[in-house]
Amino acid sequence: MSGRRWLFADQLGPHFLDDPGQPALLVESRAAFARRPVHRRRAHLVLSALRHRAAELGDQALFIQTGTYEQARAEAGGDLTVCAPTTWAARRLVARLPGVTVLPARGFGTGEEEFAAWAGRRGKRRLLLEDFYRDARTRLDVLMDGAEPAGGRWNFDGDNREPPPSGGLTLPAPPAFEEDEIDRQVRRDLDAWQRSGDVRLTGEDGPREFPVTRAEALTALRAFVRDRLPGFGPQQDAMLAGDPVLAHSLLSPALNHGLLDPVECAHAAEDAYRAGHAPLASVEGFVRQLIGWRDYVWNLYWHFGDEYRDRNALRARHPVPRWFAELEAESVTARCLSDALAQVRAHGYAHHIIRLMVLGNYALQRGWDPREVTEWFHANFVDGYDWVMVPNVIGMSQHADGGLMATKPYVGGGAYINRMSDYCADCAYRPTVRLGEQACPFTAGYWAFLDRHSARFAGNARMARPVRNLERLADRGQVVAQEKERGSDPP
Questions:
Q1: pLDDT per residue as tens digits for the range 430-452
Q2: CATH number of the domain enclosing 157
Q3: What's the CATH number where 36 sits?
Q4: Overall average pLDDT of the 283-307 stretch
Q5: Percentage of residues in the chain with pLDDT exceeding 70?
Q6: Rounded distance, CA 277 to CA 226, Å?
């Protein structure tokens, strides 16, 4: 029998134990929720998942509810093993505690040693996602026909960028999860903690929308593969005001709690393709998110080092304004941004394009401090672990790393939002207007962003043309002045 395994709240699946009967330690630390504001939905999900796992394990688990992890370690006694935690801070914690043996991390298709070996083979070349993804597909034997990719193509991304259909998507609703006494007690505890000032909660309460057990997670995976995977590919970058889910899987919280393994999810999608139940373009897009992007982000978090979170190549210094920090959707006139904030406030969730091209895009255009933007995303999303948000926000969203992750900043004007959503039709602003009362804040903000950074991006092959277009704008100075006047006011 293996020794006692310490399971963090993102290590709750069976694959974090060496055998089904291995003794376990689970710790609920009140101090962990006091470090920063946290969305009520996220706090509920973490506590519910942890307590459900403790209940499942019964006498097999020592479940300690206390102030700090150090207190729990002292109370637990004996020697412990732990799969390497998912944050720099947690790894420093377990490294300094006595009697804790740290094992390699689990829950990812590509481990840190495998990534280091792949990066070493790259030499001084850029660590491109596409190259990493192809290597992972081959090594893990996912969507492969022998030595070749299924269908003769590695990437169907060009087929998966369609705008939303005019009539929307008619798909079954994601599965609902019935709350039990554990959920009700979590809600009561959060109320008490908030009243006492022990935690600072953001967002709104509501029925639990995401899995907290392995059984629920498998139900969610099966429902997605059956109902939504066939349509996932074409509209994965689309946005609809009346449908925050579209064909997205909603599986990231279950994956990030360790209730699902990404490789098993990739194989489930592949099985649907092989059986003729889902088109290859949709399946490939989903697989790329799992063993491509997710594993890539995980490994870059460690590869770049803990100081990566402090990068600020664009010297963005403005603080995140109060209306954004406090999710005041009603104070925002721009329909896409108002809806995005309302989704986050109500659900602690918005899909990846809303995160990148609405919320992140607006912050990037205004020059908000990337460290503060990262903290905001970390606090307000149900899947917002540190390893997720630091690379995604610092690198992908805010281009604060100067191009280590992405060759160009993900900045765009109202034309992109208009093409990929139904937001602009009923908005007070016009996506083609950059000056005056009807000026779209994303369009005007795009040109003001280029004006601030034109010297930096003039030599960027993917940004040189927009910079040349900026130089031809007759109203360039007026647009920039207009954006300076807007300042931190809600658009």
A1: 999 999 999 999 999 999 999 99
A2: 1.25.40.80
A3: 3.40.50.620
A4: 96
A5: 99
A6: 8
What letter does residue 225 receive in the DSSP assignment? I
DSSP string for 367-409: TB-HHHHHHHHHHH-TT--HHHHIIIIIIIIT-TTSSSS-SS-
3-state secondary structure of 172: coil
Share of residues in the chain with pLDDT > 90 (%): 81
Q: What is the pLDDT of residues 138-179, one digit of tens each?
A: 999 999 999 999 999 999 988 778 888 877 788 899 999 999
Query: Would you say residue 290 lies in a domain?
Result: yes
- In this structure, the answer to whether residues 325 and 446 fall within a common structural domain is yes
Q: How many CB atoms lie within 10 A of CB 92?
A: 12
Domain extent for 359: 308-486
Domain boundary among 103, 135, 156: 103
Nearest-angstrom CA–CA distance, 284 and 232: 10
| Identity of the amino acid at 362 | Y
Vertex 436, ends 435 and 441: CA angle to 5°? 65
Q: How far is CA 167 from CA 131, 172, 238, 322, 439, in A?
A: 37, 15, 13, 36, 28
| Residue 276 CA: distances (Å) to CA of 137, 141, 247, 271, 307 | 20, 19, 18, 9, 46
CA separation for the pair 23, 5 (Å, rounded): 6
Domains: count for the chain? 3
Q: How many CA within 13 A on the CB side of residue 37?
A: 15
Average of per-residue pLDDT across 451-458 = 92
Q: Do residues 18 and 2 lie in contact, with contact meaning Cβ atoms separated by under 8 Å? A: yes
**pLDDT given for residue 320 in this prediction:** 97
pLDDT of residue 1: 42
Alpha carbons 366 and 350: distance in angstroms, whole number = 21
Q: Which residues contact 402 (CB under 8 A, 6 or more apart)?
A: 311, 313, 314
> Over the stretch 192-220, which tens digit does the pLDDT of each residue have?
999 988 899 999 999 999 999 999 999 99
Mean of all residue pLDDT scores within the chain:
93
pTM equals: 0.94
Q: Which of 247, 273, 298 is the last residue of a domain?
A: 298
Q: How far apart are CA 18 and CA 22, in angstroms?
A: 7
Same domain, 388 and 257: no
Could you tell me if 314 and 366 lie in one domain? Answer: yes
Cβ-based neighbour number of residue 297 at 10 Å: 19
Confidence of residue 236 (pLDDT cuts 50, 70, 90): confident
How many other C-beta atoms can be found within 10 angstroms of the C-beta atom of residue 123? 6
Residues 379, 384, 385: CA angle, nearest 5 degrees: 110
Residue 43 has pLDDT above 50, yes or no: yes
